[in-house]
Write the structure tokens for this entry.
Amino acid sequence: MIFTEEICFSTCGNVDIVDLNQQVEMKVRESNISNGIVTIFIPGATGSITTIECEEGLLEDFKDIVEEIIPHDHRNYKHNNELGGQNAHSHLRASLLGPSLTVPIVDGELVLGAWQQIVFVDFDNMPRNRCLTLQIIGE
């Protein structure tokens, strides 16, 4: 069986991290899939899906390291210079993490570690309305 669902929400931008665990768990329960996979995908070029422990200090550490690796104010981003935009860093950050995540489902439950949450990270430089696509496949 295959089920396709959406989760929609608003974000603040600027490395806004949204915990998706409860919404994904609910969609998996509603699908009645006992064993299979769920893929969470964000259409768009400035957001990513990953897992992390949603502990405040770790989330701040994540934001700090993202800024160190791909700073928002680098003067020589060609995307910004050629197109006049100011979100090259958003695209680069999202590309680094990627737009999707696949999680196994066993006995109707997501297979995640004790401290592992599924999160969406909005790297854009402004608030956005986002809709994620979930595809739940299994039996």
